[in-house]
Amino acid sequence: MPLLRAGLIAGIVVAAALYPLVAVTGIGAKATAHAVEQKTNILKTALPAETSYVYAPDGKTVLTMFYEEYRQYTKIENMSPNIQQAIVAAEDNRFYQHHGVDPKGVARAFVSNARSGGVSQGASTLTMQYVRMALRDSATTPREVQEATQQTSLRKVKEMRMALDIEKHLSKDQILERYLNSAYFGHRAYGIYAAAQIFFSKTPATLTPVEAATLAGLVKSPSEYDPITSDQKDATGRRNYVLDNMARLGYLSPDAAAAAKGQPIKLKLTTPPNDCAAIDGGHRSWGFYCDYLKNWWSAQPAFGENRLERMDKLRRGGYRIVLALDPKTQAAAEKNVGAKDNTGSPFANGIVVAEPGTGRIKAMAVNRNYSLDLAENPNSSNPEAGPKVKANYPNTVAPLLGGGSLPGYQAGSTFKMFPMLAALNAGMPLSTAYDSPYTYKSAVYDGWAPSNASGAMTGRQTMWSGFGKSVNTYFIQLEEKIGADAGVRLAEQLGLRWRTDVDKEQASPAKAKKWGAFTLGVSDATPLEMANAYAAIAADGRYCEAIPVNAIMNRDGTPATYSTAGGVQREIAKPRCRQVVNADAARAATDAARCPTGDTPAKGSCGGWSTADSVRGTVGRPVAGKTGTTDSTRSAWFVGYTPELAAASFIADPDNPFNAVGDGQSQIPVNAVAQTLRDALKGQPSRQFTPPSDQIVG
C-alpha cells in the first residue's frame, strides 16, 4: 500500500510538471490563440493607472492629486535592491530560473492542492501574476475585467501562454519593474512607490530589508497581513517568512535575517491627498479653483469623447498639472473678498481674476469654505427648497464662481459693455450722443419703457458719460441702433453662455432682436465669464478661452497635446485666442470704461460724476470697469481691469436669487475688485492703456 501511494504521487508530480506544456500547446490552444495574440500586444506596452499630480505655479509644490489607484510609476533603478529581492522571496523563489512558467512550482501546487482537497497553494509565477494585473489594468469593459480575474482553468492557460511569450520580449528586470508598479499592497497603495509612501513615508529607493519584507509580505493578502489595522502578529509572521526566504536565497546573511526578525514593524503613515476637498485647509478658496480645473478638464475633447472618459483620464493618466493660479493674486483676492469673515451670511461675495492676452485665471476666491461637510450649515434661505435642504454656507463645493453647471447671477449694467462694444466695432464713434430722458418708451421693443436709476442722469449723453453714469435710456437707444442681437452675439463670442431656459430662449435667433432688456443685464452670468470677457477688451479685443493651467505634462514628461481641425498638434495648456473685435474698438470701449472708475479718459468727458469713482484712487494706476445692480439690488457686481489683470466680483444669495442684498452691500464688489487689483499689482510698473484713434472718437 505505501508503495502504491508513493507511485501514485510520483505520477501526479510528473503529470503536473508536464501540464503547462500540454496546456500551452494542446488543449485550449485554438480557443485562446486569438485572444492571446490581441492581449500580448497590449501587455508589451501596457502601463498601469497612475496618479495625476496638481502643482502650484512653481511646478514643485503639490496641492492635491487625482487617483482611483494611488500610484506613481518608478523605474527599477530607483528601487532599493531590498524590495526587488523581498518580492522574489515572497512570491517566486525561482523567478530567475524559469521562463515565465515554473513546472516545479506547478507540480508542488498540484500535489499540495490534491492533498488538501482545495486550493491551498498557488502556482503563479511573478510573470504570470504580472500578466493577470496587466490584463486587469488594460481592460476596458466589465467583461474583460472578469475574464482577467476569474478562477478558471482557461484563464490559467491564457496566463501561462502569455507569460511564456512576455519573457521573450521583456527582461527579468523589466518584468519585475512592471510587477512592482502594478501590485496592490492595501490601503489604496498601488505599486511600490505608493506603498513606501503610505506605510513608511519614504521612497522605494530607501527601503530597508525589514520594510521591504513587510511590504512584500502584503501582496499575497493585503487585508490578512495588514500591519495598520491588525495587532501586527500576522504581519510580523508573514514578514519573517519573507526574511527567512531572503536568507535562504542568499540575499541576506543568516545573522542579518535573525536581527531583522527581532525588530518590530515601525510604521510612519502618510495619507496622500485626493481630489479638491483634500487641499490644505489654510487655503480656503483654493478648492474652488481646483473644482474649476476639474470642470474645465471634463469639457476638453482632447481627454476623451465624454465627461466620464475625460475624468477617467484625470484619475488614471499620470498627468503633471501646473496651475495658472498666482499665489500673490490669490492671496489678495482672499484678503479682499467682502465680508470675508462673514461665513454665516447667505450672501456669497466672490471674485475671479483673469489675465488679458492669455485667458489664464489667476485667482478665484469667495467667502465660503470649500468642504464636503455640510453638517453645521443652516437650512437654505430659499423657502421652496424644503425644510431639510442645507444652505451653501459656511461650507460648500458648489461652483459659485463659474466653470460648472450653475447659471450664475444677474449681472446688471455690466452687460452695457456688450452693445457699446458692438456699436464701436460697427463703426459708431464714442461721441455718439442721444437725449436720454428719465423714462424712454421704445417703439422697437414694443413699447417697453425702462427708466434710469436717478433723475440726475437726464440729458444728452455720449458713450463716455452714458457708460460712466450707467444711463439706461441712453443704452436702450444705442441698442436699438445696432440691434439687440448684435450685443447678444458679441457676448457669446466673448465667452458667455446661456444656461437658464429663459436666457436660452431670449438669446435664440428668433428672439434676440427683441431682447431689449439684454443691455440692462437681466441674463445670468458667472464672475469667471465676466472677468474673462472684460480681459479680452483689455487685450485690445483679443479673446482667449479661460484656462486654469500653465502646463500639462504626460506621464513620460512630454506636453499633453490635441489635434486641431486642421490636423496640427498643439499643447493643451497653451492659450487659445482669437480676435473678436478690432483693436481700435476695444481701445475705445476701454476709454469709455475709465469713466465709471473715476479715471480720466484719453479723449472725452465723463460728464462730471460716475458710479464707482473711488476705484481709481484705490488701485493707484489706470483702471477701467463697470458697476452693475439688478432690480431691488438682488445682486450687485463690479468688473474692473488694468492692462495687466481683469477682475469680476459679485454679491448675491446663490440659494435664493430673490433674497435682495440691498443697496448697503452694493459697494462690496467694488471694493473687492479695487483692493485686489491694488494688492496684486503692488510693486509692478504702472502701464497705460493705449488710447483710441481720433477716427473712432468722432
UniProtKB/TrEMBL annotation:
Keywords assigned: Carboxypeptidase, Cell shape, Cell wall biogenesis/degradation, Glycosyltransferase, Hydrolase, Multifunctional enzyme, Peptidoglycan synthesis, Protease, Transferase
Keyword Methyltransferase: no
Residue ranges of domain Glycosyl transferase family in the record: 62-246
GO molecular function, one term: serine-type D-Ala-D-Ala carboxypeptidase activity
Substrates-to-products reaction catalysed: Preferential cleavage: (Ac)2-L-Lys-D-Ala-|-D-Ala. Also transpeptidation of peptidyl-alanyl moieties that are N-acyl substituents of D-alanine; [GlcNAc-(1->4)-Mur2Ac(oyl-L-Ala-gamma-D-Glu-L-Lys-D-Ala-D-Ala)](n)-di-trans,octa-cis-undecaprenyl diphosphate + beta-D-GlcNAc-(1->4)-Mur2Ac(oyl-L-Ala-gamma-D-Glu-L-Lys-D-Ala-D-Ala)-di-trans,octa-cis-undecaprenyl diphosphate = [GlcNAc-(1->4)-Mur2Ac(oyl-L-Ala-gamma-D-Glu-L-Lys-D-Ala-D-Ala)](n+1)-di-trans,octa-cis-undecaprenyl diphosphate + di-trans,octa-cis-undecaprenyl diphosphate + H(+)
Record-level GO cellular component terms: outer membrane-bounded periplasmic space
Biological process annotations from GO: cell wall organization; peptidoglycan biosynthetic process; proteolysis; regulation of cell shape
SUPFAM superfamilies cross-referenced by the UniProt entry: beta-lactamase/transpeptidase-like (SSF56601), Lysozyme-like (SSF53955)
All residue ranges annotated as the Penicillin-binding protein transpeptidase domain in the record: 351-654
Keyword Transferase in record: yes
Family classification: In the C-terminal section; belongs to the transpeptidase family.
The protein's name in its UniProt record: Membrane carboxypeptidase (Penicillin-binding protein)
Protein's organism: Micromonospora sediminicola
Higher taxonomy: Bacteria, Bacillati, Actinomycetota, Actinomycetes, Micromonosporales
